[in-house]
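**Discrete fold encoding**
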Amino acid sequence: MDYKETLEYISSVNWKGSVPGLERISILLKRIEDPQKDLRFIHIGGTNGKGSTSAFISYILKAAGFKTGLFISPYIEVFNERMQINNQNISDEELAEIATYIRPYAETMEDLPTEFELNTAIAFEYFKRNRCDIVVLEVGMGGEFDATNVIDAPMAAVLTSIGLDHTAFLGDTVEKIAATKSGIIKEGCQVILYQQDSAVTDVIKERCRIMNACLHISEPEKLTLLSSDINGQLFDSPHGELYINLPAAYQKNNLATALKTIEVLNGSGLSISDEDIRHGLKNAVWPGRFERIGTGPDFFLDGAHNPPAAKRLKESLNIYFTGRKIVYIMGVLADKSFDEVAQIMFGKGDIVYTVTSKSPRALPGEELAKVLQKQGVKATFCSTSEEAIMHAADEAGVNGVVLAFGTLSHLGELRKAYEKIYG
């Protein structure tokens, strides 16, 4: 298969959607000689902040000289983003080669794997072939029955902020969701937890007790904000002054989780210096997380798509844009709490342009606009991303702000549309 054929094959309608369980991925991996057995992992689960935390950790490990794999989901612009080594995407050629190798093993299974399981197998084979020292492995959804949880005990199991999301699959309370996500904690492993409410913390503590695992809770109080603007933030820390390129206020807690993980890895025998930490963080980038892609008006992208993420995004808006006109572009998935997100983000009279993402799970923009209008928001559906961008930019004016947010699946479309319009 060539690259185009590979992407068509991976997204084929023959594959199942989202089906929890480890039996299929275990069979598939065994057929290709269990590449994951030759790798060391940092396993990262949670509801929000997984991507940013993974990026911080992977950039620091790269700066320390480790050949670092990174597996994420979803991607924003190109599929290849899902599998990276030293923060470089897998090439079209290698993706096609590995998918072609795995295809006959997958197609002859009695119970065909899901798309995510196939992606996971491709990633493990990719990291093994390239002899990665460490792989930062982001959970797809949940934890206990997520395909990535087929690995043995990781070097560290990291749990970021946990809140209500994917409730149809994971449970309708934060305690139930935390219990499912805690499934990545294995016997005797090191566990790092984002500092959060006792409802979540108590569940994780109990899982650690049962699994004889050592729990470490992040310490954001050790980070003192020295300065911040829409380009980034500077913190004082036990590692010296740390600069990150991600300006959102919520990144402080993700950073603290990443730093606690590095501390634990150092205690487990790795050698990562303060200079490695400073250098790695200074170079770390993570698209679609309060990311400015243009000016006049300032144009931002953010992947906030559930109520906890919306609250954190709103905090950053209040910090940076008080007194400035903000116009919104919003696109969501139908299975998300989009009405609650809207209540957090918007006040009566706010101007929002709605779009429909290309995801098969997308909520039609027309329906979203009607929901917002009932809340007193001035919502208008736009049939294309280009139309939404031009209307929002005109409405915001040169000195205003446009914030495009919601599901990550439509941020890539918006970025391409923005570049097409403004170059």
User: Anything to note?
Assistant: The two ends are 33 Å apart (CA to CA).
